[in-house]
């Protein structure tokens, strides 16, 4: 189950953009894409270093407090992936050499059921050029054992154990790409171009895509990632792929137009609070 908090800088989100979509779902979920994504978006070598106890990035602190949890129980790790310094010109495909070298920061509550290494591995599988648009990862427990996630200001919060669900990380990264300016149509989800292409399709990928236009775009980001990385593309596992073609193809085209875009994570030297 996913939950996403959406904010557009300097403006309120128009009500129509958060209304439920009426196109029927193509499938009951995107779990059927998981195997191919894990196989062809392989692990990336990484290393991590634990911060001195008592220090936490300000965004991690805000998200922890908002979850009614104590920041004293959150540990912060600097995570360095070996593919940083190389990148993809298109967010989910070709390699180039333009990514910043700053590590990512992962904030993890000591009671989180997902092992630290699992979170590092899964996030590292998100292609680096897309990964560059994510600021921090926050992993927190949920008192009701409910698995969920959201993206706030480019930070991804994961609650409970996500059971090696790579589609969840790609989905939340899709919100960063959409709302933080990765695409020429910025934000893509609110653009006339996206709405025109959406109107051409008869379906959305799954029931969660029906939540609103933002979630539909993020779910189509998962479809696009599969189509770009798994040999044979989405048609290998989805015979009705043409019913959502204009949506996921628009994301692929926007990524190609973006070319060698650089991430907007911000420096690790943002305000820290003790």
Question: Distance between termini?
Answer: 33 Å
Low-confidence stretches: 1-13, 94-98, 260-274
Q: Rg to the nearest angstrom?
A: 18 Å
Morphology call: globular
Q: What value does the average pLDDT take? A: 86
Largest sheet: 6 strands, mixed
Order of helices and strands: HHEEHEEEEHHEEEHHHHE
What is the helical fraction, as a range of percent?
Answer: 25-40%
Count of helical stretches = 9
Spell out the key features of this protein.
274 residues; alpha+beta; two-stranded antiparallel sheet; 9 helices; 10 strands; 15% strand; disordered N terminus
Characterise this structure:
Helix 8 crosses helix 9 (245-258). It is globular, with a radius of gyration of 18 Å. The protein has nine helices and ten strands. The protein has 274 residues and is of the alpha+beta class. Strands 1-3-6-7-9-8 form a six-stranded mixed beta sheet, sandwiched between helices. Strands 2-10 form a two-stranded antiparallel sheet.
């Amino acid at each position: 189950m996913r939950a996403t908090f959406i904010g557009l800088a300097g403006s309120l989100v128009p009500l129509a953009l958060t209304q439920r979509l009426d196109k029927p779902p193509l499938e009951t979920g995107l779990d059927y894409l998981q195997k191919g994504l894990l196989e062809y978006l392989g692990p990336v070598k990484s290393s991590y270093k634990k911060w001195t106890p008592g220090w936490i990035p300000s965004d991690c602190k805000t998200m922890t407090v908002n979850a009614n949890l104590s920041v004293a129980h959150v540990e912060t790790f600097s995570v360095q992936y070996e593919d940083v310094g190389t990148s993809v010109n298109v967010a989910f495909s070709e390699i180039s050499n333009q990514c910043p070298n700053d590590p990512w920061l992962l904030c993890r509550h000591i009671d989180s059921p997902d092992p630290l290494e699992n979170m590092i591995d899964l996030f590292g599988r998100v292609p680096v050029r897309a990964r560059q648009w994510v600021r921090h990862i926050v992993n927190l427990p949920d008192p009701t054992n409910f698995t969920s996630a959201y993206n706030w200001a480019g930070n991804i919060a994961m609650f409970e154990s996500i059971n090696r669900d790579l589609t969840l990380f790609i989905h939340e990264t899709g919100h960063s790409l959409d709302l933080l300016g990765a695409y020429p149509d910025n934000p893509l989800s609110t653009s006339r171009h996206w709405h025109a292409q959406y109107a051409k399709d008869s379906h959305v990928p799954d029931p969660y895509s029906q939540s609103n236009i933002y979630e539909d775009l993020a779910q189509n980001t998962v479809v696009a990632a599969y189509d770009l990385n798994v040999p044979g593309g989405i048609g290998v596992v989805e015979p009705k792929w043409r019913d959502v073609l204009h949506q996921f193809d628009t994301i692929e085209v926007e990524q190609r137009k973006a070319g060698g875009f650089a991430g907007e994570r911000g420096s690790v030297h943002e305000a820290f609070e003790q």
